[in-house]
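Saturday, quiet lab. Running sequence design on the structure tokens for the scaffold JK sent over.
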């Protein structure tokens, strides 16, 4: 069986390898998932929760080791990698929320009583990216399992080891066939989409999302798609520029910009434009770049040469078309791209339109709030956004933006209990929160005459 080799993007060293699942084997894997599903669904919600709680404890015990593996495999700083594993392992609140979301609900209509059941679809195919190699599988796998589905996970070919560790930890407690993993790249993903699954839960690029939606339609399969973004930040008069600049640096450059809700476009009121650029550059220049295993490193490498070349080309094209490099002009090496701030960007440039997924921020001035809204909404994407300024005025601007998650004087993520949701071409369905968990279940209504 041929091997998938996992490579450290910081050093080029081999981190480990897994066996590639032959495309011809995927139907058998899904068949095993289907056979295991009825008895998994027969367990009560609290029985499933208790098993998964134990799995979380297993994972917590290995948090340091899996975090180190994640850091080596993907490149993010060790502290963030271990934090990602710990956040996944701490499942208790999420599981309780799922029990509540998925429990039957009785509606008394007087002459008859209806009960809403939230049943499993059957088998879920989960297909996930590499940028949060344990969190992204977890966000899809956990609600799918809690709803009584069995799951076949196809993680990114860039981070197979971390996903395997996650599945192994859960499988210390799950019955056989309830959670399986297949390894490989897009061909294995496509084969899973074409297989006998009932729901496809996908996180990744818009292009792959379109392919999955198209292919899933042939079998009328359900889909949940969490796709890319081109998140704007709007800086209005009255903004605390130091706070806004610190946020911009963190949110544009964390994980080397390889975050779906990275700040990629920043619109700044014209009078604040140059002072903001100065403060932003000073924050960016403080961020230490290097091997994520080294102490004090804030930014690691790009995941691979293909992604690095795409980002460098966007920078070069923007400069050739008239953008000004505020910081980050030189020093790129290996898979490392120095955090780059581009000023005087126009919306005809690729860097203002196409998802970068790298440590690059395009900064553009505006003259009034309406123009800021028009520019921020000039994108087919609609994942996250943030607006900075005096809270009431900022909230008015925020309500006119097309994104699914918008923060005022903070990042886009909502508080606990709210969904992770992309609008426009950033999402098709969503997950997390009671409403999100319910997307992994088929509602059935049983009505009994009174
Ligand atoms: P990708 O779309 O290239 O790959 C994601 C997964 O899909 C991989 O496992 C890949 O093998 C598989 N795949 C690719 N083409 C497929 C096809 N035609 N059919 C079935 N499977 C296929 O994305 P990536 O490079 O791994 O990740 C980066 C992208 O993910 C960015 O666009 C980012 O914004 C997005 N993302 C979104 C969220 C969110 O919550 N909205 C979170 C993280 C990442």
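Result came back. Writing it out in full:
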């Amino acid at each position: 069986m041929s091997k998938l080799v996992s490579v450290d993007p910081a050093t080029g060293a081999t981190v480990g390898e897994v066996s590639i699942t032959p495309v011809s084997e995927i139907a058998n894997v899904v068949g095993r998932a289907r056979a295991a599903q009825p008895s998994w669904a027969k367990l009560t919600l609290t029985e499933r929760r208790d098993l998964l709680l134990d799995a979380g404890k297993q994972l917590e015990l290995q948090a340091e080791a899996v975090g180190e593996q994640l850091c080596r495999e993907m490149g993010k700083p060790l502290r963030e990698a271990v934090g990602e594993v710990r956040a996944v392992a701490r499942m208790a609140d999420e599981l309780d929320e799922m029990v509540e979301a998925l429990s039957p609900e009785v509606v008394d209509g007087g002459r008859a009583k209806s009960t809403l059941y939230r049943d499993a679809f059957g088998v879920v195919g989960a297909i996930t990216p590499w940028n949060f190699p344990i969190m992204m599988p977890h966000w899809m796998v956990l609600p799918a399992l809690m709803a009584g589905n069995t799951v076949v996970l196809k993680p990114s070919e860039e981070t197979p080891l971390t996903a395997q560790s996650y599945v192994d930890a859960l499988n210390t407690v799950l019955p056989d066939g309830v959670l399986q993993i297949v390894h490989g790249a897009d061909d294995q993903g496509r084969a899973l989409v074409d297989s006998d699954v009932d729901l496809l839960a996908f996180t990744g690029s818009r292009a792959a999302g379109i392919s999955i939606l198209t292919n899933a339609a042939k079998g009328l399969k359900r889909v949940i798609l969490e796709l890319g973004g081109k998140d704007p930040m709007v800086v209005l008069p009255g903004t605390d520029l130091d706070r806004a600049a610190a946020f911009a640096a963190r949110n544009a450059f964390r994980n080397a910009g390889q975050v779906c809700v990275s700040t990629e476009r920043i619109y700044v009121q014209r009078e604040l434009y140059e002072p903001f650029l100065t403060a932003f550059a000073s924050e960016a220049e403080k961020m230490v770049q290097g091997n994520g295993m080294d102490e004090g490193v804030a930014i690691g490498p790009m995941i691979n040469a293909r992604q690095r070349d795409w980002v460098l080309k966007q920078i070069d094209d923007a400069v050739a078309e008239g953008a000004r490099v505020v910081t980050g002009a030189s020093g790129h090496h290996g898979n490392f791209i120095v955090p780059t701030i581009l000023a005087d960007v126009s919306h005809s440039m690729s860097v203002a339109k196409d998802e970068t997924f790298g440590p690059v921020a395009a900064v553009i001035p505006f003259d009034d709030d309406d123009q800021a809204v028009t520019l921020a909404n000039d994108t087919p994407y609609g994942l996250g956004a943030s607006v900075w300024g005096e809270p009431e005025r900022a909230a008015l601007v925020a309500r006119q933006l097309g994104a699914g998650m918008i923060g005022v004087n903070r990042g886009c993520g909502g508080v606990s209990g709210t969904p992770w949701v992309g609008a426009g071409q950033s999402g098709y369905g969503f997950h997390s929160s009671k409403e999100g968990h319910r997307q992994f279940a088929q509602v059935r209504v049983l009505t009994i005459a009174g």
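Notes for JK: The domain at 231-413 is CATH 3.40.309.10 (Aldehyde Dehydrogenase; Chain A, domain 2). Residues 26-42 form the longest helix (17 residues). Ask whether to fix the surface positions before the next round.
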